[in-house]
Design goal:
This protein is an alpha/beta fold and 285 residues long. The chain has 10 helices and 12 strands. The structure holds S-adenosylmethionine (SAM). The site of S-adenosylmethionine has 20 residues, from helix 4.
Length: 285
């Protein structure tokens, strides 16, 4: 809940600390700005200009929830949790704070919190439908709607581990909110990820060079801890899971809905596909 993580949140306008007010119906900052807590339990922390875009739609979030609930990405969630647990183990923080940027449904963050005693989670996403799920994803998650590109509404050096799973990265802000001994654990889709679906459905593939681009953006803010780790495993997907996978990804926006439905209907009942991503650990440079 928000009250468990309010001590690390910051006013998006001026960065001053926030506290709960009026029975958790709003958060107020030291400088007097006030942010209403939605009845579903999340808070929107956006500066004067508001949010630039909406992020994932309600349909995409529902598709994501359905797909992830089948456990197809279990090796990804386990690897992320394992790395975060290693980082927290070293820090000895009593109530460590894990921030997930672009947290979606909270699938990864909930798993991580379940595995680390006493940990608290900030689930941040720009999408309101995602935030509604995040707010009830786990008793120790506080859900925040914010734009990662605009800046993170968190205090300096307030986070023990930060995770980003297939979501936007803002290295300057990551370096600002990470404690000195903290790390960012980042999962990047790698070229070839779910490639078997690309041709039959006419959807976009993952471009090469994602890691190199991220390293260039991170220069001066973050540096690698060890080598990037390639995670690759086979998954058997039924047609409903394939439809959910397509529905939760930007691919859905590139092919007309009727055409996509026809192509999905022509697929075999099951397909064997390859999941492929790079797991990267970074710390402040
Ligand atoms: C591919 S999804 C990944 C969701 C989740 N990490 C997962 O793997 O299940 C990307 C997420 O980032 C969010 N997002 C997109 N742009 C964002 C931004 N500028 N700031 C915060 N979140 C953003 C989307 O709404 C979406 O939930």
């Amino acid at each position: 809940m928000l009250k468990d993580i309010v001590d690390v949140l910051a006013d998006p306008v001026d960065g001053t600390p926030l506290r709960c007010a009026d029975d958790l119906s709003r958060l107020v900052s030291e400088s007097g700005h006030s942010y209403d807590v939605a009845r579903q339990g999340y808070v929107t922390l956006a500066g004067g200009r508001g949010l630039n875009h909406e992020g994932d739609s309600a349909e995409m979030v529902t598709a994501r929830e359905l797909f992830l609930s089948q456990g197809h990405f279990a090796p990804f969630v386990e690897a992320v949790t394992e790395r975060v647990a290693e980082v927290i183990d070293k820090s000895h923080a009593p109530e460590p704070v894990v921030l997930e940027v672009g947290a979606g449904t909270g699938y990864y963050l909930s798993h991580t919190l379940d595995s680390i005693d006493g940990s608290r989670g900030v689930g941040m996403d720009i999408s309101v439908p995602a935030a509604k799920l995040l707010a009830k994803a786990h008793p120790r998650v506080g859900a925040v709607v914010a734009d990662a590109w605009e800046g993170l509404p968190l205090l300096d050096a307030s986070v023990d581990a930060l995770t980003v799973i297939f979501a936007p990265r803002n290295p300057a802000e990551f370096a600002r909110v990470l404690r000195d001994d903290a790390e960012a654990v980042i999962l990047l889709a790698d070229q070839g990820h779910l490639d078997e679906l690309r041709e039959p459905l006419g959807i976009l593939g993952v471009k090469s060079g994602k890691l190199e681009r991220m390293m260039r953006q991170a220069e001066g803010y973050l540096e690698l801890v060890g080598d990037a780790e390639l995670l690759e495993f086979p998954i058997r997907l039924d047609r409903a899971s394939i439809a959910a996978q397509v529905g939760m990804s930007p691919s859905a926006r590139h092919v007309e809905a009727g055409v996509l439905r026809e192509r999905l209907a022509r697929l075999p009942e099951f397909m064997d596909v390859t999941a492929r991503a790079q797991l990267v650990r970074m710390r402040k440079s």
